[in-house]
Amino acid sequence: MTSIDPTTPAPNARPETVDLRADLRETHALDVIEQLDRELVGLRPVKQRIRDICALLVVDRARRRVGLVSEPPTLHMSFTGNPGTGKTTLALRMAEILHRLGYLRKGHLVAVTRDDLVGQYIGHTAPKTKEILKKAMGGVLFIDEAYYLHRQENERDYGQEAIEILLQVMENRREDIVVILAGYADRMEQFFRSNPGLRSRIAHHIDFPDYSDAELMAIACAMLEAQHYRFSPAGAKAFAAYLVERRKRPHFSNARSVRNALDRARLRHAGRQFDHDGPVRVEDLAVIDAPDVLASRVFDPQNLA
Question: I want to staple 147 with a disulfide (CB 3.0 to 4.6 A). Which of 60, 156, 187, 204 is the partner?
Fold first, then answer.
């Protein structure tokens, strides 16, 4: 009789430990998380939630590898917050993370609005919605201002047909597509109340706070640096004042409004340099100064729009 050494593990013995951090590093998902940290200023609770989701998925991978089988986590999400707070950027990086962790085949992002899904006549909505879903398979479908899919006041609206198709795919194909619904928090809440089937399929609700003035200033400096510009000390002071005034006006869109303001400042800067008599110093081509900012209409007390 052949004796068995009790210290020799059985051929299919379950390991006693797993290295979760090593698993995360091997997928290179950590690279995307670090890129997200560089891309998005602030948003600490949002970034922490993404790390928590990553931890859940790494643990799920480890559990499956050692035979602890369970249903894959539901990954459909809701992103709520004002415009310009990074929702689309996060959706793009989330697609990459899920691909690297093995939960999506392709990891691409398809970003759409109501007009891409809902038709204008009978029989038009289903083909449009199904075509978009086909493009998004293996990746993330990001539906911005998702509440416009449902127009309760219009009995002849075809948005409900698109919602019903989405519900079926979110349930039956959830291992091959992640749907992210995005929009203003209050409107999204009303949307979910009107469509409880959608709420029940959303596992992760992530709220994006507005940026502080200091964070918006950091975003502005990063945007300028990416274009090889910088503020002069007076220009930085003027732009900080601009942010205070711009917040008081309607349709403020966080980082999006900052980008638009910088585009206009660069336009004024170019005109100012072009009107200069004689040669222009190369250094001046890269510096946004106070006049380039203070000419904005937000400093005009007669213009309250």
Answer: 187
d(CA 18, CA 111) in angstroms, rounded, equals 37
- Closest-CA residue to 230 (of 269, 256, 260, 257): 269
Tokens of 242: 């601009």
* Residue 221 to residue 277: CA distance in whole angstroms: 29
Helix axes 29-39 and 44-65, enclosed angle (nearest 10)? 180
158: exposed, middle or buried (Cβ count in 10 Å: 0-12, 13-18, 19+):
buried
Helix axes 213-226, 233-247, angle to 10 degrees: 130
Q: Residue 139 corresponds to which tokens in the numbers above?
A: 């990746």
CB distance 254 to 89 below 8 Å: no
Average pLDDT of the segment spanning 174-191:
95
Locate tokens 């005009």: which residue?
A: 300
> Taking a C-beta distance cutoff of 8 angstroms, is the pair 118, 162 a contact?
yes
The pLDDT of residue 266 is above 60: yes
Structural tokens at position 304: 């309250």
Residue with the larger pLDDT of the pair 77 and 250: 77
CB-based contact 131:165 (threshold 8 Å) = no
- Only one residue has tokens 């449009």, namely 128
Q: Of the candidates 126, 190, 121, 128, which has an alpha carbon nearest to the alpha carbon of residue 156?
A: 121
Alpha-carbon distances, residue 54 vs 24, 30, 45, 46, 259 (angstroms): 8, 9, 14, 13, 30
pLDDT one-digit tens code per residue, 215-262: 999 999 999 999 999 999 999 999 999 999 999 888 999 999 999 999
